[in-house]
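Re: the multi-chain job from yesterday

Posting the exact lines I submitted so nobody has to dig through the queue logs.
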Amino acid sequence: MKPDRWLDCRVLVTVGTGGVGKTTIAAVLGLEAARAGKRALVMTIDPARRLADALGTGPLDHEPREVPRERLRALGAPDSGSLSALMLDTKRTFDELVERLAPSPEARERIFANPIYRNLSDALAGSREYSATEKLLQVASDDRWDLVVLDTPPAAHALDFLDAPRRLSGFLDGTFLTLLLHPAAVVGRASLRLFRGGSELVLRALERVTGLEFLTSISEFLLAFEELLAGFGQRAREVARLLREPSCGFVLVAGPDLSQAKRAEAFWERLEAEGIHLVGLVLNRAHVWPGAGAPPEDDAAAAGRAERWLAEQLAAVDRELDANAAAAALVAAVRAQAALARRDASVRERLERALPLESDAFRTVPLFADDVHAVEGLARIAREIFGASRGV
Amino acid sequence: MKASLAELVSRRLLLVTGKGGTGKTRIAAALGVLAAREGVRTVVVELGDSNVLPELLPPSAPQRRADRDREPRPVGENLFSLSLVPEAALQEYLELQLHVKLLARAIVGNAAFHRFLDAAPGWRELITLGKLWHLASLEDGRGAPRWPLVVVDAPATGHGLSLLSVPSVVLDTVRMGPLRRNTDRVHELMTDAARTLVVPVTLPEELPVNETLELRARVRELGVALGPVVANGVEPELALAQPERALADLARLPRGAAPSPFAEPDVVAAAARHRLARAATQREFLDVLARELGEPPVRVPWLASGVDDAAGVGALADALRGALA
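And the result, structure tokens for all chains:
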């Protein structure tokens, strides 16, 4: 899909391993949507302070902050377009969820007071990922936005967040959970079926290993959550559905090195298996060759000729310059740039072969030497992705 | 702390972390290689089964299936590697505690227990730390440590901090029982500066540097000692005495007359400007690091040949050796 068409999605999700620039690309997508006259919201995990400065939103938090109108106008956005950003807050999202789903104020307070909840809601398996998708569900049904861009949390496996909803729903019908929550039921005759699969044996053995107190505190935690679990499961299924809708597009962001390319290929396989729509790939921070055409192959003889010619020419225009030394340093810089550009081009070729995307769905964003977190940097990246026609 | 190799390899547990994309896995592998070269029997541990680490270390001899998940694989003289998978570590732990293999297998194989584990908080972190403690505590026949040094490719900053904070959460909520005793031992190892260090890896750029400084503050709060900060990928400066003057001169040269694309003035100027600007950005953030840390970071040069295999890690280890000296 051509990048212009990416913006027709209702939800765009940027995925990729940590450090590839997902957040920056997410901001660029939102900015470009605003310039196309859409009302866009970018949800991020941990925005660079300078990114927030560049957008003029002030420090980001859990509520959407709007980019000032003048700033958007300066970037060529029509008045119909808008851009807001918010920072995902796992604890707050969970707190909100508990507030909404708790059947009574007592149930709510029991959860908030539970030490495991207080300390671990951040470490709860997949909670960061879950909170991102939960928030997505909230805003996706909000008609204040035409497009929501979700910048996914960095994770060892960048697609962990696809599993988070499933984990929580699988958790619901767990026999084991029932045993933990209602230890008394185990002795009741009616619950004999729970013994199937040896769950009770398992529980007893675990008690020997961990101690009763640990199991009790886990039980209390789960007991406090029990009344909410049905609501959790429902939300989890809705998120799973939303992410697979045709109006939800994933943009894979990759860095230009071999291991990153391999991981991008693994993501693609996973996305396809999950029935998720990949709309494009951004190869970010790639070295480009500043000359015309492809970067030349390295050639020591050609480099030697280049150095001699450059030294003569520089000496001719500037007699006070140490022309030989300057020519040597300059040619070394050019050769290094060519080598990097060749390597990054080969990574791109590899990805093009591996991923079944149209060629214009592959975008390369050069590694800019200076700060990309300023607003001009974002505009430059937008030009690289969306082409000069839409450029500022 | 003083960034000498001897200081680092005298520890028992090095937890290498940092923002994604900073090269922490490669630095962890290189640290392992360096320690092994110093004659310290070292195991480099990757968390999970992403299998990135094995590509970066020399190939190992095939292993018995039963050992693969729990026994470090020899990959060189004094050098071993292990992929630590929480599920496997849990089974091993249960076997050790229950003394009945079959029972442990029944627990781990129980479908209901599996669904519970999938959602249960914190146990992956806890069992991971438990296995690291176990590795660090094993002794050979003569009472000497079996693995004098364990180098861990720890999760990136956020998840890394969750990992480090789990023992104190457990200690807060569990007062007695076997879990308490085991967690006490783990916590004791982690907070002993003579044995355990967190080694943050960063790039000399804005986002990774900010994240490193935040990491440093949080790690201190947890009572875990910080080792030297490794600034990875430090690019070479352009060896140009008067860069602006040379660039101005370049602008006056004839176009299209160069004997090779390596001398075309516009191309040369673009490459030179790129290099100068990159170097300036990197210098700025190396300075920020030095100022905030109160000492210069360990500067590991960027390697043009890339670090994609065991040979690359060997070269990185050489570079790291030079940076630590």
